[in-house]
Amino acid sequence: MNSKTILLASVLSLSAAFAHAEDSGDAEVIDKGFAAMDLDKDGSITKPEFATYMTDYLAKQRAEFDNGFDALDADKDGKISKEESSANSALEANFEQIDEDGDGFLTKEDLRAAMQAAQEAAQSE
After folding, report:
1. Residues 80, 72: contact at Cβ < 8 Å?
2. Domain ranges for the chain
3. Phi/psi of residue 101, nearest 5 degrees
4. pTM beyond 0.90, yes or no
5. Rounded Cα distance, 37 and 39, in Å
6. How far from 98 is each of 51, 72, 74, 93, 122, CA to CA, in Å?
7. What digits encode the pLDDT tens for the residues 24-64?
8. CB-hemisphere CA count at 13 Å for 76?
């Protein structure tokens, strides 16, 4: 996926979040998001400011994903077994659906594919 596609997807997801916040009357969410992106506090968001914000935001998401995976991977073999998934009720309930190759384990790639599929399904609704 090229950087323009990633940027567009990010803008669309932020736009959707802001629209939802506006619909629910939560201007504070919008203001906080804007303030976080407006790094020089000049009242506007430039492309470099947005890129910096998104780079940091995505890095935090990746770190949270990795930390969550590592916490579930009790034996540290790089995959989550059905038994290990019992520490997370949502993961345990959907284990077989996420384990598309049926090997009895979930890898980071399996989870990323499941999250991507869920996101695509949500966007098509």
Report:
1. yes
2. 1-59, 73-125
3. -85, -5
4. no
5. 6
6. 32, 15, 19, 10, 17
7. 557 888 899 999 999 999 999 999 999 999 999 999 999 99
8. 0
